[in-house]
Amino acid sequence: MEIIYFLLHLLKDPLTTLQDFLAHYDMLTYAILAGIIFVETGLIIMPLLPGDSLLFAVGLLAATTGKLDIQIIIPLLIAAALLGDNINHFVGKNFSQFIKSRNQILFFKQDYLIQTEAFYEKHGGKAVIMARFIPIVRTIAPFVAGAGNMKYSKYIIFCIMGATLWVTSITLTGYFLGSNIWVKNNFEKVVLGIIFVSIMPMLWQFARIKVLKKG
Q: Using only C-alpha atoms, what is the Rg of the chain?
């Protein structure tokens, strides 16, 4: 029950949640952050955990509190994302038929899988990088790559590029904007903006599919 409360609070207000954890757990926060990123990217049944907003909040807190070292947190979260991706890829390669046979498992819906497969068909290998910046899709993408015919040697190159770009760009954005008063006072608006920008490619793809079907 406590875990569910924590996840709901994290989804609603990642900045306040992280501030509370820093106050109570100090250095253990590094492990907690790595665990969240790992679960969000590595467990196909948990696609709704915060990703972009969490990274932005981490960067902001690193700049304003001094309790998180940006030179430690970025490599750590890149490693967590890569580990999650590779486990998800392994699951896709070995258990895809079982998961596809279920309409819903916890927070995972079969519709997410269908949408991500369409995204791969549209963008090919570069979808691994692009998917990093799209909520839900980034959780399903490694699974789809594992279940599909993409060679691992090709996948891992895109995987490393995507994880590095995603973690570095969003965390540093939060870090350099963290001292801005407006950003501090309007964190929720900034997060909503990040989420909106992140899902724009997916919304565009869905709209395009709808138009083609009607045509």
A: 17
